[in-house]
Design brief:
The chain has 1056 residues and is α/β, with parallel strands linked by helices. It folds into 7 domains: 7-105, no CATH class; 135-220, no CATH class; 231-361, no CATH class; 367-465; 476-576, no CATH class; 588-811, Tandem AAA-ATPase domain (Rossmann fold); 818-1053, 3-Layer(aba) Sandwich (Rossmann fold), CATH 3.40.50. The termini are far apart. Keywords: ATP-binding, Helicase, Hydrolase, Metal-binding, Nucleotide-binding, Zinc, Zinc-finger. Residues 616-779 form the Helicase ATP-binding domain. It comes from Lysinibacillus antri. Residues 889-1051 form the Helicase C-terminal domain.
């Protein structure tokens, strides 16, 4: 074609943006001149699609152009493909002379403007999308060690395409970022319109691109005293800057750094001009600073956040306006496209004002999208229409609004629907979509279609509806107790309209994690629903026969307990009446007709009868349980009632009941049995080894054998060889640590029924509860590693039928009150001097060890230091030899005792330190006041006698070691309890107080805690409050947590 051009003419004819894209096409060798004569040229531009360009010169010398592309959208200026062919003609001619062309370009025209906003929609992703024609480039990424000047190794990244090393990696990444062509070898040029990367490789390329751009920012930061924020670090740093007292300077004015919601303060005014065309006026760029690397705009001290795409658009608009054009001319036939494509984007960039006359011209109606689905010859067919009032647009045939209509289209909603269809795996034709892949069809029907429902009206033929399983086909698992064997549970899978044989196949599909199952009628049953996931978890826990699952199967009740949570919570499980009745019996044993032994019926209170029936119910089903009533509510009496009720069975089977308890309680048990069940033959196994062996050899006539935890360990071989009728573990917290020898020993005891008795099933951690159930009812929980991950509410719900706990407040309404008071005292000067010196040393030593690596190994040393501080508070003479000073707390105690003596009160004094009890005893002797004394060395039979003598009124004071006498003692003869020193766990102190505050108490009990003000004891008291509700947390979820003495506790106690 004989026409002389240059690049300026082509750019003026096509617009800046289209010119640049056309130039990219040309440099990518995608332009072919098919016909080229004097007045006519036919060109071909290759890409995802081939575009045909016609260029001809009329008789006046004016160039006329046309292109087959649908993206031209009737712009006044020529498209990017026309630009590519004109550049090819120009380059072929090699001419630089100007040709006078009849081109009018007074203002920046609308096609350039709209092309900017098309970028977001037409830009290709770096990785391949569904059914895309772009070729995936095999980009290899290789790390290579590189030694810098400081003799330190770093990794260098090398990029290869095929076997060819990319020499300029930075340049290549820059071209990828800007979507420009990049020549790799003489025979291969990377073209973003033709080539792409795999999804995984593209993610790496994006990161490398950010790295290169950061390098460029740093290279530009000259001189060296300028510190710039690189884009990749900006987001995290900016969040910190917003929280700090940061300022920002703009045009000499300093503002506080802050973000502003909404679009930047740009003004866009669209109006109609007299010649019938339209103009968009732009104002406000002079007040904006754009930070495209940070996606921010600054104006008058306020920062506005933009998306990556919007910040790029804004930057291009600013460059346009900077050339002197602050308004855009829009032809009348472009208004429709402009309103659809540009205006919605402008609203994100500023305030848009449209004259009323324009709005009246446009049809502003809502989009009604219609999706038509049919199924023919194993293909899923889809048709799509966009309807605006009576204007119907066929997006797959001709996306244009029919001639003669002006409609404001909902471009974003249309694009969202089209993208969902594209991403679903459909193959697109000129008039619709089709899909011939059952897995993709399932995904579309069950995962995509629900998302399309809010966006479009969906019309399906019967053939498509058949593929969707009806909502009433809901999986259920019926749960019931077997009629023939009441200790077995039957689980039966059911689905409406599906036979058992088919259910077996569905379960097999679930096992191999299929996404769906095709039913005989062709319906696709989803196996990804919440209900199916629950069934799959259930299947993973049950045994399969020959790797197959049956539609129904049976499990022993004991093996079914781990499913209690699922059965109660899940909608999949459907418990029948027989199973509900079982659970009701466990939770409400009072409804069962279990007679209480006649002579005990008048002695037991109602709640104790409830506890007895609860034990009988658990024993009937072979379950173990934990009776966790408050101290003093008669756990022993309830257990004795159970023993009496089982006497006939015990003697018929010749299997005695075993009671294991602390050494201090063995004779207490014997005494209680003699009092409430004299017909029961019971024996305590104690004494020396030969004496115990003799007793163990002659037990034929015994109904009950009583021993202690220490003696059980010593005689474990004999006990492990026996099979007992029932075993009671009293004060079961004795084996709360599963790693101890006691825990391992009690676990091996064989018995038909197993019960734990403890007022404190949890003292420090939930692991203690697991340890108890691991002994009495191991089927209830999994291994300890799995148990630790169970939520508290799950643990609470699972133990509910098998843990019975009542508090005094709940059941003993007639029990007199309990008053708790704190008595504070100031350290004496000589005490305080010693305390401050010890505290300073302990703080210094502790700070060195309070980290994860050394805390565990230094814990004992730290606790020993804390004990010294507590002893100073009690009395420095506890460890300071020759100490002649006094103790404020000791003097306070003596004053309380004197007042108690005058008022006729009887007192229990507890202390952890036996030496402190001895000091108190010496003082009482000096004051001619007699007392009882009990510690860990007191023989068991003597303990019972001392308690009885005190309760009968002998002596007014009882000195008791906290750990030795905190359990198993009945001292209702006292009405005052003094806790001389505090213990870490409040449960231990509560046990001590409950020696007096228990059933049988007729007086108000006063519990007095002695605390030294301003010392570690105040911190310990605060720690106790945190620990107090751990048991309640299990029985009544949502309470606070308790923990062991942790590193955080020690920091708080020592104020570190």
């Amino acid at each position: 074609m004989e026409v002389k051009l240059n690049r300026k003419i082509i750019e003026k004819l096509c617009g800046t943006v289209s010119f640049k894209r056309g130039d990219s096409f040309f440099r990518g060798n995608k332009v072919e001149l098919i016909e080229n004569d004097i007045d006519f040229c036919l060109g071909l531009v290759k890409g995802n699609e081939d575009f045909h360009v016609h260029i001809k010169k009329d008789s006046t010398g004016t160039i006329q152009t046309s292109c087959s592309c649908s993206s031209l959208l009737q712009f006044d200026k020529a498209c990017q493909h026309v630009a590519a062919v004109l550049i090819a003609i120009y380059e072929r001619q090699g001419a630089e002379k100007l040709l006078s062309l009849n081109i009018e370009a007074t203002y920046v025209q609308a096609n350039d403007f709209m092309t900017i906003f098309q970028t977001k929609q037409t830009r290709k992703s770096g990785h391949q999308m569904h059914f895309e024609n772009r070729e995936i480039v095999d980009l290899a990424i290789q790390l290579r060690p590189f030694e810098n000047e400081d003799e330190q190794y770093l990794f260098e990244i090398q990029l290869k395409i095929g076997n060819s090393l990319i020499q300029d990696s930075r340049g290549f990444l820059e071209n990828v970022y800007h979507r420009n062509n990049s020549r790799v070898t003489t025979s291969f040029t990377y073209d973003p319109m033709l080539h792409c990367f795999s999804k995984e490789t593209d993610a790496i390329v994006q990161q490398l691109t950010h790295l290169v751009r950061d390098e460029m920012v740093l290279m530009d930061s000259t001189p060296q005293n300028r510190l710039l924020i690189v884009p990749s670090s900006f987001e995290g740093l900016f969040l910190l800057l917003l929280k700090a007292n940061t300022t920002i300077e703009e045009y000499g004015t300093v503002y506080k750094l802050q973000m502003q919601d909404g679009p930047p303060p740009l003004q866009f005014h669209l109006r109609k001009i007299p010649d019938g065309h339209y103009q968009l006026h732009i104002h406000g760029f002079e007040k904006l600073k754009i930070f495209p690397s940070y996606h921010l705009v600054l104006s008058e001290g306020l920062l506005y956040n933009l998306t990556n795409e919007d910040s790029e658009i804004l930057q291009q608009l600013k460059q346009m306006v900077a050339k002197g054009a602050n308004h855009v001319s829009i032809a009348s036939n472009q208004l429709n496209t402009f309103m659809e494509t540009v205006v919605p984007n402008l609203k994100r960039l500023g305030h848009v004002e449209i004259n009323d006359s324009i709005l009246r011209e446009m049809k502003k109606t809502s989009l009604v999208a219609k999706l038509y689905l049919d199924r023919l010859k194993h293909r899923l067919l889809a048709g799509l229409e966009f309807e605006y009032d009576h204007v119907v647009i066929q997006p797959l045939e001709n996306n244009d609004v029919p001639i003669g209509n002006m409609v404001i289209r909902d471009v974003e909603k249309e694009a969202a629907i089209l993208k969902m269809m594209e991403d679903s795996g459909f193959t697109q034709t000129e008039g619709g979509y089709y899909m011939q892949n059952e897995e993709l069809e399932y995904h579309f029907l069950y995962h995509v279609l629900p998302k399309l429902h809010p966006l479009a009206q969906i019309y399906m033929t019967t053939a498509v509806r058949t593929r969707l399983v009806k909502k009433d086909v809901f999986p259920k698992i019926q749960v019931k107790v077997q009629k023939e064997r009441t200790d077995w549970i039957e689980f039966k899978f059911e689905m409406t309209g599906i036979k058992d044989d088919e259910i077996k196949e569905i379960l097999a599909a679930l096992k191999v994690k299929q996404k769906y199952y095709r039913l005989p009628n062709g319906s696709l049953l989803s196996l990804e629903t919440k209900e199916m996931e629950e069934i799959q978890r259930f299947l993973n826990e049950i045994p399969a026969q020959d790797d197959e699952y049956e539609a129904s199967f049976n499990l022993p009740i004991l093996n079914s307990l781990k499913f209690l949570d699922l059965i109660e919570e899940s909608e999949v499980f459907s418990p029948e009446q027989s199973f509900r009745q079982l659970m009701d019996q466990l939770l409400h044993p009072e409804t069962l007709k279990m007679e209480v032994p006649e002579y005990l019926d008048s002695i037991l209170r109602d709640y104790q009868k409830h506890g007895y029936r609860w034990m009988k119910t658990l024993a009937n089903y072979g379950f173990g349980g934990v009776l966790a009533d408050d101290m003093g509510l008669g756990k022993t009496l309830q257990s004795i009632t159970f023993i009496v009720s089982e006497l006939e069975s015990i003697r018929q089977q010749q299997k005695p009941i075993l009671i294991v308890c602390p050494s201090s309680l063995t004779y207490n048990w014997l005494d209680e049995l003699l009092s409430f069940a004299p017909e029961v033959q019971a024996i305590v196994i104690d004494g020396k080894k030969q004496e115990r062996e003799k007793l163990l050899q002659d037990l034929q006539s015994m109904d009950v054998v009583i021993t202690s935890y220490p003696l059980l360990r010593r005689d474990r071989k004999w006990y492990e060889s026996q099979n007992f009728h029932t075993v009671f573990f009293d004060e079961a917290q004795a084996f709360k640590n599963p790693m101890t020898q006691t825990a391992r020993t009690v676990k091996k005891i064989q018995a038909d029924n197993r019960f734990a008795l403890t007022g404190t099933p949890v003292e420090n951690s939930l692991e203690e509860l697991w340890s108890i159930y691991y002994v009495v009812f191991p089927q209830l929980f999994q291994k300890l590693e799995d148990y630790t991950f169970l939520p508290r509410k799950v643990i609470a719900r699972r133990v509910r039928p098998f843990l019975l706990r009542r508090t005094k407040k709940e059941v003993l309404t007639e029990l007199p009150g309990k008053q708790e008071t704190l008595e504070l005292s100031e350290l004496l000067p000589e005490q305080k001097k010693l305390y401050v010196a010890l505290l300073a040393k302990l703080r210094h030593d502790t700070l060195k060890h309070l980290d994860k690596e050394t805390f565990a190994s230094s814990r004992i040393r730290i606790l020993a230091g804390l004990t010294r501080l507590r002893q100073v508070c009690c009395h420095p003479a506890l460890f300071v030899e020759g100490y002649t000073g006094g103790s404020a707390k000791f003097e306070q105690l003596l004053q309380i005792l004197e007042e108690s003596q005058h008022s006729g009160r009887r007192v229990l004094i507890f202390s952890q330190f036996t030496k402190m009890l001895e000091m108190i005893g010496k003082e009482l002797v000096w004051r001619n006041q007699s007392y009882f004394y009990l510690d860990g060395k007191t023989p068991a039979d003597e303990r019972v006698e001392l308690c009885n003598r005190f309760n009968y009124g002998e002596r007014e004071v009882f000195l008791i070691s906290l750990k030795a006498g905190g359990t198993g003692l009945n001292l209702t003869g006292a009405d005052t309890v003094i806790l001389y020193d505090l213990w870490w766990n409040p449960a231990v102190e509560e046990q001590a107080a409950d020696r007096a505050y228990r059933m049988g108490q007729k007086n108000v009990v006063e519990v007095i805690k002695l605390i030294s003000r301003g010392t570690i004891e105040e911190k310990i008291h605060a720690l106790q409050e945190k620990k107090r509700d751990l048991v309640t947390d299990i029985l009544h979820p949502n309470e606070n947590n308790a923990s062991k003495l942790t590193e955080e506790d020690i920091r708080e106690i020592l104020m570190l």
